[in-house]
Amino acid sequence: MKICRSFIMLTLIFLVFGCSSTKKNILQETLASDNPKIKNVMSNPETFELQIIYTQIFRDKNNKVSFKDFTYRLNAENYFYPASTVKFPIAILALEKLNTIENTSINTQYTIEGKSDTLRFSEEITKVFAVSDNEASTNLLEFAGFDFVNESMAAKGLTSFKLSHRLSTSNPGDKKTKAVTVYSEDAKMVNLPAFTNKSSVALQLNALKKGIGYIKNGELVNGPFDFSNKNYYPLETLHNTMKRIVFPEAFKESERFNLTKKDREFILFSMQNLPKNAGYNPTEYYDGYCKFFMFGDTKENIPSNIKICNKVGDAYGTLIDCAYIVDEANKVEFIVSATLLVNKDGIFNDDKYEYDTVGLPFLGELGRQLYAKNLKK
Questions:
Q1: What's the pTM value of the predicted model, to 2 decimals?
Q2: E strand or H helix at 52, and its extent?
């Protein structure tokens, strides 16, 4: 938790060193780069369904935080599949719901109907951020529930959002969440019955039908793949979720997540923690495994002075990353979110996506160039 606390202490550091404003559009400059990893995507951004938000962070003499956002092709009406980024609010709101039960904490244990394992909230959240574990996210969702997540996001002003299905399960769209038993720290059991959540309504957005075909039961189906009943988490909502977690004081109390100081520190710590520090094999789960910006296209170790609080997603040829990037030694901090689709053949579910050759090199270089430009400021 020591590293996480240093994030909190950045406010004091920036009071001393300051952060001057600039008229330059750093995002625009970066996207105009001659680097082939950038040009490869920028030569046809519409095909890649590219969307980006970059936020400069400013602090006044009283350390009050303000933001300046720069965007590229941002449009919440243009659908992209959010993949594992939905695990971000699930993890946060599982802790928020847990706070409604007396004598509980991040280390509280719980069980789920039909599962023999005794789970711990802190451990499931660690898995969600360290390696984007699908089962851990589903375990947290069984506790939180679809309705609680959707309604809590809307109540905080994050209205462009819809969680309608689980990830990588046999019953993704089942709206009945299982019974859960929470073991409070005063040795009492709190039984939460199975609950049937509200039915989802099909999305009405642009670009919900994508591609020219998809694989179903091992066979090619000719025709676009329909995403109208999938999860919805547009880039601006994802980006604003990050702002609320990193800088809650910049928002009205009604717009903040209802977390204890320890909860929030644990979320920040888990988001920046590397797989090897969470007990995973560093060969398989290298530093950049879930850090697409700056390090997604390399297996080199991330320097100790750079911390990245983020959540990534990759599925159906779509890559997403939302990150708060900090270099304490060089007094750099900024937020960046981006999504792009890399599916050249237009076929979904065939596992033939250009993640390694196009998508990750673009996100890696985008992050590196934004970092370098902030370093020079």
A1: 0.93
A2: strand 51-59
List domains and CATH numbers for the chain: 2-355 (3.40.710.10)
- The dihedrals phi and psi of 182, each to the nearest 5 degrees, come to -105, 130
Identify the CA nearest to 247 among candidates 15, 11, 17.
11
Nearest CA to 317 out of 212, 200, 161 is that of 212
Which ranges constitute the DSSP H helices of the chain?
Answer: 2-8, 10-17, 26-31, 36-42, 87-98, 121-130, 134-144, 146-155, 235-246, 261-272, 292-295, 360-376
Q: What angle do CA 127, 51, 18 make, to 5 degrees?
A: 75
Dump pLDDT digits (tens) for 122-176: 999 999 999 999 999 999 999 999 999 999 999 999 999 999 999 988 889 999 9
Contact 150, 67 (CB under 8 A): no
Q: Which tens digits make up the pLDDT trace of 195-232?
A: 999 999 999 999 999 999 999 999 999 999 999 999 99
> How big is the chain by its Cα radius of gyration, in Å?
20
Is residue 322 within 8 A of residue 311, CB to CB? The reply is yes
Average pLDDT, the chain: 94
CA within 13 Å, CB half, 1: 8
180-183 and 109-112 strand pairing: antiparallel
Under DSSP, is residue 70 helix (H, G, I), strand (E, B) or coil?
A: strand
290: how many CB neighbours lie within 10 A of its CB? 26
Residue reference for tokens 């709190």: 190
Beta-sheet pairing, 347-348 with 213-216: parallel
DSSP code of residue 83: G
